[in-house]
Design brief:
By secondary structure, the chain is of the alpha+beta class. Helix content is 26%, strand content 41%. The protein is built from four helices and six strands.
Length: 146
């Protein structure tokens, strides 16, 4: 019996969550996966002082990495391998070392081969960046049925 993607997400949720939570680069930076649903992810980061730029604000590369991690988690939330194709980020406000960063990724549309996402990055609950991103959805699963 073949499971739908929603069923696969539900049946293999714990395995999917563990695999995505243990992403090496995200862990290296101190990112935490706090919520996972089908096509949705919420991740957080408490920036350290070594993540600041010359102006004393969180480096744009850190904000980008957080948004990209949320995007990766949301797009791989079905246990099916999805790889980034393109993204655009807009920075709106500065963030500081004492601010909690939260990235929320939400699926906008998904087809058999492509999916689109909007990712908002909040700094102490204030919007500081938005990203629009697209993935290519491969045929193989990294968790669950083949």
């Amino acid at each position: 019996m073949t499971l739908s993607e929603a069923q696969q997400h539900e049946q293999y949720y714990d395995d999917i969550f563990e695999a995505l939570k243990n992403e090496p680069y995200a862990n290296y930076l101190g990112m935490e996966l706090v919520e996972l649903k089908a096509g949705f992810a919420k991740v957080t980061l408490s920036p350290a002082t070594h993540m600041l730029n010359t102006h004393g604000t969180v480096h744009g590369g850190i904000i980008f990495s957080l948004a990209d991690y949320a995007f990766a988690v949301a797009s791989n939330s079905y246990g099916k391998t999805a790889v980034g194709v393109t993204n655009t980020i807009n920075y709106m406000n500065a963030s500081f070392a004492d601010h909690q960063l939260t990235a929320i990724a939400q699926e906008v549309k998904k087809t058999r081969r492509l999916a689109w996402y909007r990712i908002d990055v909040l700094s102490n609950d204030e919007l500081c960046a938005t990203m629009e991103a697209m993935v290519y959805r491969k045929t193989e699963n990294f968790i669950g049925q083949e």
